[in-house]
Amino acid sequence: xxxxxxxxxxxxxxxxxxxxxxxxxxxxxxxxxxxxxxxxxxxxxxxxxxxxxxxxxxxxxxxxxxxxxxxxxxxxxxxxxxxxxxxxxxxxxxxxxxxxxxxxxxxxxxxxxxxxxxxxxxxxxxxxxxxxxxxxxxxxxxxxxxxxxxxxxxxxxxxxxxxxxxxxxxxxxxxxxxxxxxxxxxxxxxxxxxxxxxxxxxxxxxxxxxxxxxxxxxxxxxxxxxxxxxxxxxxxxxxxxxxxxxxxxxxxxxxxxxxxxxxxxxxxxxxxxxxxxxxxxxxxxxxxxxxxxxxxxxxxxxxxxxxxxxxxxxxxxxxxxxxxxxxxxxxxxxxxxxxxxxxxxxxxxxxxxxxxxxxxxxxxxxxxxxxxxxxxxxxxx
Length: 381
Ligand SMILES: *Cc1c(COP(=O)(O)O)cnc(C)c1O
Description:
The chain has 12 helices and 14 strands. It is of the alpha/beta class and 381 residues long. The strands form 3 sheets. Strands 1-9-8-5-4-2-3-13 form an 8-stranded mixed β-sheet, with helices on both faces. Strands 10-11-14-12 form a 4-stranded antiparallel β-sheet. A two-stranded antiparallel ribbon has the order 6-7. Bound molecules: pyridoxal-5'-phosphate. Pyridoxal-5'-phosphate binds at residues 60-62, 86-87, 89-90, 138, 164, 166-167, 188, 190, 201. Pyridoxal-5'-phosphate binds next to α3. One of its GO terms (molecular function) is pyridoxal phosphate binding. Keywords: Aminotransferase, Pyridoxal phosphate, Transferase.
């Protein structure tokens, strides 16, 4: 529980109590190893929850993205398109493979990848006789990207989608679950995500053959021989059986967490959206967001504070908040990368300059959230 006078977090681990049972089982059977009953069950339970044919439990979401790129044969000299407005982990695996990232802008309606900018980029590359090996589409802050349009564009150019659903587990896209639209979907169970295993990830797909290959690469790529023989580069990327036990307990309360995240968003929205110059990440018509983090925009034409000012101000009251992701095309790491913006403007840059993520911790009491809102109103207006 967040205690009175204690710190109010952006999003921190929130155990259900049921995790302990699965961890105990692992202890009692001495199954304190990677692999085991919890790993198998967690994979099956998550695949069933999202409606994919299979799932592979891994040590992180980043590992899942990396394996997806390997399975799509991304290598040196290849190009991979990626959303710009995201956490660096979406794109780092492109560099692990020696490939080149090309960044795609967001649309103001969804904050996610702009189908127009994506189409421009694909046409541009096609005109030069090239195409990317994959497009990594990120579902930001709990909300699916516009896949009707993104998928038909990618299908037209025959480029597979890796859906970075690290932030959108439990969100819907039409009748489907977020993370199941691309060739591969990626989830994260890092400590700040909607459910957590302290650290971990999952790769999902309907292609069970490729998922079997993912398991192979994730366990050091050992050939089927009586001795240790290796023909491929492998990784040590599997999730431990203990952590998978935490995941099983967490999955049981995912719907409760989504309900609470949306409640938190609704209270911010009701309390703050009436202030001139304040707006929130829009709700899209094609699916339901989990509102993993409530993201708010501060319009500099109406209000004289920046997101960084607000972060510093709230920090004085032991309240954690943070600016919206700094787009990857603006990162020193990617300073030489190609970027396709949306229309005349750079939407992701504008969202970064104006955007802030507010405390969205499901353990936060209504009283605590009231304090956050009071401080925000005092400071902003
Ligand atoms: C958290 C996150 C990841 C990485 O997941 P890890 O499990 O921390 O490796 C990737 N992409 C996005 C968008 C994320 O928010």
